[in-house]
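Backbone-to-sequence.
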């Protein structure tokens, strides 16, 4: 929210367009990550009750075995972190370039520092979920949500492909948003 508020507070056409691009990209990325979490359900051993997973560490064993979901989840998290050459990077880059063009260099340094801190959290989550296996962690059996699995997989793949599309055509999308703002203004 900080990037969006700062971009809107500049009240420049490019910064407002960058804020809308940021909202578009992060809506797609967060939808994709929540859809991935909706895919899993958990079955309790004591009473055979099936519940949704409330702890993200419970899915680490399943993600270690499913390469496609691991790649999609990793790309989504790295893009949320804003690492270079992911879609989330370009949305933050446009906002930072608007700040630089307005002369707010100290604010750019603060935002970059905060972004580095949040990137460490995302990378730590990816490392924990995909590369570290804890032997004493008790995980119940995981089942894929069969009722909605085909539609959720399809929606997740669509959002992932949309993320890849935005990655290659982010500048045209920014110009399209800028054109809409100019025509409405």
């Amino acid at each position: 929210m900080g990037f969006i508020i700062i971009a809107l507070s500049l009240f420049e056409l490019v910064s407002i367009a960058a804020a809308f691009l940021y909202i578009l990209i992060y809506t797609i990325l967060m939808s994709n990550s929540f859809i991935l979490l909706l895919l899993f359900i958990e079955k309790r051993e004591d009473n055979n009750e099936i519940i949704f997973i409330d702890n993200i560490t419970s899915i680490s064993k399943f993600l270690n075995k499913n390469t496609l979901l691991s790649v999609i989840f990793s790309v989504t998290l790295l893009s949320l972190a804003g690492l270079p050459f992911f879609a989330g990077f370009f949305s933050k880059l446009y906002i930072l370039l608007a700040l630089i063009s307005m002369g707010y260099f100290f604010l750019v340094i603060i935002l970059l520092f905060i972004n580095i801190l949040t990137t460490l959290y995302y990378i730590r989550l990816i490392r924990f979920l995909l590369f570290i296996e804890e032997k004493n962690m008790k995980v119940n059996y995981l089942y894929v949500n069969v009722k909605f699995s085909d539609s959720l997989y399809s929606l997740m793949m669509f959002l992932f492909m949309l993320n890849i599309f935005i990655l290659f055509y982010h500048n045209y999308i920014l110009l399209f948003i800028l054109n809409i703002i100019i025509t409405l203004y």
